[in-house]
Design brief:
- By secondary structure, this protein is mainly alpha-helical.
- 67% of the residues lie in helices and 4% in strands.
- The strands form three sheets. Strands 1-4 form a two-stranded antiparallel ribbon.
- A hairpin with a 2-residue loop joins strand 5 (302-304) and strand 6.
- Helix 5 (84-111) packs antiparallel against helix 6, helix 13 crosses helix 15 and helix 15 (350-369) runs antiparallel to helix 17.
- The longest helix has 33 residues, at 379-411.
Length: 420
């Protein structure tokens, strides 16, 4: 039987070429798989949600006689189905896990220098995946169409519309008109969320995997001593496939437990949209941008070539744009003449490591600024924290790395050139 299929499909050739690909056995390499599992679960749970969700804000009556948008009513209906609330909760938490896993995966690549030649293109694809994952999560914000969802989405609408010259067109494409208010907004966001962005994500994930198979993984540092010039790891089939299967089952068990214990986004508690603006905060991956918007004074506004440059554009577009631009240029600035085969130790690259820690502290401080009102902190205190603490973190970590590891650099085979 196998020979019959092999003669027609060349299964042996496929096995030798792709299924024998070696995967490094190191826990940090599972971050990419976790992101992939989260995406698969998002698609599967999303299919269930689409079968019961109505993307419309037409008014419908609930059994208690109250009138609410159809989108809101359909989410209430989903929650009333057997396991409906848990499946919606799994969808919600998987979005969080995917954002976190993609971010940590990129962070691992960053601090290990795995973005260098020949993997510059895959680094850019990874950045695109992170951006698209976050945008996809945002487009799902409005769909429950409760008081929280409308308020949070309105912030994003304001940021998009604030972009000079093209902001109106972007807001029109994304929201189908003014948000909230336009009857086209929810159907437009729904189609983008369930169709166009997932298809783009599938294409990018496929491209990422294709490049990875072609270029092969970077090897853990110990492989340079244990088996120099050779690829260490286990083949995709059967060893790596078995480990991935077990990891997927663990992912499902943990996510379902979290989703059951902490039901996400209780729309009955938020209620349908009202003219009042509730005191809500975005999810953690948007909180740092929200924090920046909190500390930028409304007077920070000027005209440039006839366009208005305001706080929303500065905090919501320029700052994230600068960080994204620097990340995209990194492999071409911090480059390598030779192909990088082994992961670089963060301790041997104090500049890169300390700057990365400084940027992470910037995210923490701007996230803290998101709690400006709750913590009763002034703008002066928050600006001091945002500017000084990340700088201090970078300087102190650089000094510590130099003091603790400089002797090891001198003893390393590559010598001082290995360090920044």
């Amino acid at each position: 039987m196998f020979q019959w299929f092999d003669e027609r499909l060349e299964i042996s050739r496929l096995y030798n070429k792709f299924l024998r690909k070696a995967f490094p056995v190191h826990h940090s390499f599972f971050l990419g798989e976790i992101a992939l599992f989260a995406f698969v679960v998002l698609v599967l749970t999303g299919i269930f949600l689409t079968l019961n969700y109505e993307p419309s804000i037409r008014e419908v009556k609930l059994p208690d006689g109250s009138t609410v948008p159809a989108a809101y009513a359909s989410v209430l209906y989903i929650d009333s189905l057997p396991f409906g609330a848990v499946i919606r909760s799994v969808h919600h938490w998987s979005a969080h896990i995917m954002v976190a896993a993609v971010f940590l995966h990129l962070l691992r690549v960053l601090i290990s220098g795995a973005y260098k030649k020949p993997r510059e293109l895959n680094w850019l694809v990874g950045l695109g995946l992170l951006g698209l994952t976050i945008v996809t999560a945002f487009t799902g914000y409005a769909l429950p169409y409760d008081n929280y969802a409308v308020t949070a989405t309105r912030i994003g609408y304001g940021i998009g519309a604030s972009i000079p010259f093209v902001g109106g067109a972007i807001a029109e494409i994304m929201f189908g008109g003014e948000f909230p208010g336009s009857t086209h907004s929810v159907p437009r966001l729904y189609s983008i969320h369930v169709l166009w962005l997932p298809l783009t994500l599938i294409a990018l994930i496929g491209l990422h995997l294709l490049i990875m198979v072609k270029q092969k993984h970077t090897q853990p540092k110990y492989a340079e001593k244990v088996a120099p010039g050779k690829i260490l790891g286990v083949p995709l089939y059967p060893q790596q496939s078995v480990m991935m299967g077990i990891l997927f089952l663990v992912y499902l068990a943990v996510t379902v437990f979290i989703a059951g214990a902490f039901i996400a986004h209780p729309i009955e508690a938020f209620g349908p949209p009202t003219p009042q603006t509730p005191a809500v905060k975005p999810d953690w991956y948007f909180l740092w941008i929200y924090g920046i918007l909190q500390v930028i004074p409304s007077e920070w506004q000027f005209r440039l070539f006839g366009a208005t440059i305001g706080p929303e554009f500065i905090g919501g577009v320029i700052v994230p744009g600068i960080l994204g631009g620097v990340a995209a240029l990194l492999p071409f600035v911090d480059s390598s003449k030779d192909k990088v085969r082994y992961l670089e130790l963060p301790s041997q690259h104090p500049v890169r490591t300390s700057v990365t820690l400084g940027v992470l502290m910037f995210f923490i401080m701007t996230t803290l600024a998101g709690y400006k009102i709750d913590l009763k902190l002034s703008n002066a205190v928050l600006w001091t924290l945002i500017l000084v603490v990340p700088t201090l973190t970078a300087v102190v970590s650089y000094v510590l790395l130099k003091a603790l590891y400089s002797r090891n650099w001198e003893r390393s085979p590559a010598g001082p050139q290995a360090a920044d």
